[in-house]
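Dear colleague,

As promised, here are the two records you asked about, laid out in our usual form so they can be pasted straight into your sheet.

NAME FIELD: protein one
SEQUENCE, THEN STRUCTURE:
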Amino acid sequence: MRMRGQGQKGSFSDLHLPVTKRYLVPPSRSRMVIIGGVGILLILVFILFNFFMGDASIAQRGPLSSGHANLSKDCGACHSRFGAVTNEKCAVCHEKYGDNLGVYTFKTHYLYHSNDPKRLTAGAGRTHHPFDVRDEVPCASCHIEHEGRQAKMTSISDRFCLACHDYQSFNQRHPQFAFVAVKEERPGLRFTHIRHVQEVVKLKNIADVEKACLYCHNAKPDGRRFEPIRFDRHCDTCHLTTTTATPNLPIRTADEIGVETLEALQRRNAPGTLWAFYTNPNEFRISGASVRKSPVYHEDPWIMENLRGLRKTLYADAGLTNLLVASAEGGDPNKLILYDEAVQTLKEQAMALRSSPSREVQSQLQEINALLDQVQKRTKDPATMLDQEKFITPFRLRTNALTQEQIEAGNAIVNNLSKPCKDCHLIQNATIVRVQKDQQVLKRAHFDHRAHILQRRCLDCHHEIPVEAHLNANKDVLEKVSDRAEIQNIPKIERCQECHNPKTTSNRCVTCHYFHPNKSHRSDLLLYMD
């Protein structure tokens, strides 16, 4: 390097690159830290001001759902200061009857769908659920906000469901439908689908077999379930016509088992027999010591009353079964129906006391009706434990009071008296077996037929009973076909998985399972509260 003089650095190398006249001194680092800290503080102050005093446009993760859009400028409506969303904040708007959670508690979610109060107790009905159903779970742990205006907060992500349920998805380790394991139910009917489809096709001149099915299976407006089968709507065109009659039946005497005539019932005027005074006497034909009735009606009161009398004669004690239209076993799983029938029978029996001029009787009648009203209100409370066993009687024949000949004669009368009924119904212990009017196959899920009917025909899925294959078969062939009322003509999960998979259509949990209480049932849900 060549130097040009004192105090001058000159240049260096053969290229004569210049050298600065003074050394480069880096600025102080402490000044950079101060400037950066002040900047960060200003940004933090702005965010805090925006969060508490402004519209929180900076702090938000994303737009609120449309249901909460009016709260976009009021973060404090949901969030506590420097905290997450609490259940108390949710309850302010969603619970109309106080600030505490009531109809939207986590345990009420269980009760809403199961209608089983036992699930509110610790450990009941749970196999692998990490929560005690009595413990309150934060609403925000499942219902996530700030996902956009079109987001639906009740459309829960599968990860929240699968965190508790021991399977991976609908297509991986999802359990088989519960009703498939049952295979058959006890509908309490003698019924064959194929034969009835044949008759409906002839009667209505229907070319499409599926329309013949829909003649009886009438979908509800929501498309999820079907209306219960009703005799007056679906059956009376062919069954119990004006020519239907009972066989000649022996008339009851002091020494002989038999049936009571209309006149005898009028004279006895027993509770619940007020109908006898309004029944047409021309429907009965008395010939010597026997009586015959024609026509016969569905739930014919004369037949039902005589069955009740024969039951009391043949069996030691029928208990509360005498208050029911049919037996308590089998049939509809809704226990409330049993209690409603029993209360209705007692009200009809009490009605006969209205004609009594006694003030004491009238006063007691008012008390009886008041008590029956309280019973009905109590039984309609979903939190009330209803015991079906109270209506189930271990029938024991009166072998100590009746001879074997009398028992056989009594059973023969029961068979003949119920002969018009036995074309469809089952009779046990002089009692009609309860009919299951509606197969409640999906108790924890929903199925919308409207969403599927464009993709599949009814018989594409409901093929357990081979209707089309044996539609025009003769009677001998039909008797060999597996077609009984007990068979559930419902597809298995494999049929659903053909379409509901990641490649075809939605297989999310919320596609079929809707866990959230229905707001339209708020008045009913209030009964679920403690």
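NAME FIELD: protein two
SEQUENCE, THEN STRUCTURE:
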Amino acid sequence: MSSNPQESWVALREDKRLAEVMFDRPDQNRVLGDIFLGRVDAVLPGIQAAFVDIGTGKAGFLHVSDLNLDEDGEDDEENGSDEAGNGGDAKASGKEKGAAKGSSGKGGRGGGRGGGRGRRSRQLPPIQDHIRKGQTILVQVTKEAISTKGPRLTADISLPGRFLVYMPFASRVGISRKIEGRNQRAKLRKMAQKILPRNSGGLIVRTVGEEVTAEKLEREFKRLHERWQKIRGDAESLSAPSPVHREATLISGVIRDLFSDKFEALRVDSKPAYDEIVNYVKSVDPDLEDRVHLHQGDTSLFDEFGVEEDIQKAFRRTVRLKSGGSLVIEPTEALVSIDVNTGRFTGKGKKDPEETILKNNLEAAREIAKQLRLRDVGGIIVVDFIDMESQENRDKVLRELRSHLGKDRARTKAFEVSSLGLIEMTRQRVRPSIFNSLTSICQSCGGIGRVYTPASVVRQIERTLKRAGATKEEKSLVVRVHPEVALRVIEEEPGFLKRLGSRTSLELRLRDDPLMRLDEFRLLSGPAETDVTEKYAA
């Protein structure tokens, strides 16, 4: 962990390799997991949703399935957000909340199958029967605003603790699906039921609470229940839209949600953060205190473990595989496409190309699961594996992909191989990816990642000069261009200006300017060199 007043970073390493990275800055205005008193701006029966003003600029989206409609005695545990708070700033774990449906086994487990949305399959009452325009409503952010979309909201509030998730509007006790022993699950369920007063909400025992004592569970439940009472009291004294409760900071949330005896060590380079972590660990799990280390020395923490370099690699379009093949990862507005290439990998058995392709695809499947987690890619993902003739081999690749997706804390689902040989996936997205958070649209290329070649720019200039000549308003023009474009004209088309000047009756001069963008040009008119580019450019 690396922290300073300007930003906080958390890097998770597995097998000496960066597996996941999270960061937060004050200017990011993170609201994931925060609770607001909102005002309903509009109710849209056509899509069974409402837009709620929470005072953050963009109205939040509230679907009818995210209301407190506990009509049939079931709660809405399957609507959780990402495991372990998505970097400590989200609400309850999606996989843990899904487990609170009981041990029915509905919805997938890790393995890429994802969790179900139990409420979506139920017949829900019309949203207009429950909320109206202008109404105030207590909501929690389950998904950050991304691009032009506002945040996703729920009225089904949940408060995460170290061992428990408290859900005031639920009515059942659940156990994290990652706790697999039947006897242990039954034991934890009885413990949780015993500490939960009647008609006081629902609980989920989190993964880290597998070996927790009844006393610790009860102590945490009381703390979470008191927090909820304070939230309700604060909401009554506020006018909408207003923030009511802020989720834990990045580092505090990660320690609360993730740090357990499964970690060999936790290293932090900030003394204040170190002291805060040690004090918290002492109060909840003293056995972990000796695993917390303060990093000191001239070399930065991230440089010593190669984290900075790995983060930079996460922005690259091409990922090289050990076998010699590669992945090409292309984010777009609608989806993320991943293309698998063999590269120089030909395998040992040239007589069996199918076996070679299978090995390449299996390695690619493992790397894809790692890259999705590292880059925090969300939404729709389409993977174009190398074509395989054998259905058995296609199934092997799909199983390998699902197996490694099971390590991901975000809910994922990988579908069967399509008739075009593609695997379509979805991965839970609760915030913008690291790539989108740390980068901005290129002003030179307009975000497409490419610029016109010098030859294309010359042709654009030619068409623009013809328009200027046709108006008969100009007598002389200076064409200002990037040096590479000027070099293209001099070397490839030395008669360019003379030919165009004769055709348009314009006196033309070419001037190179290293401050120009490669695909930019300007037309300067007359002795005063007035810029008239916009007048004639397409």
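A couple of things worth noting about protein two: Residues 214-236 form the longest helix (23 residues). Residues 71-121 have pLDDT under 50 and may be disordered.

Best,
R.
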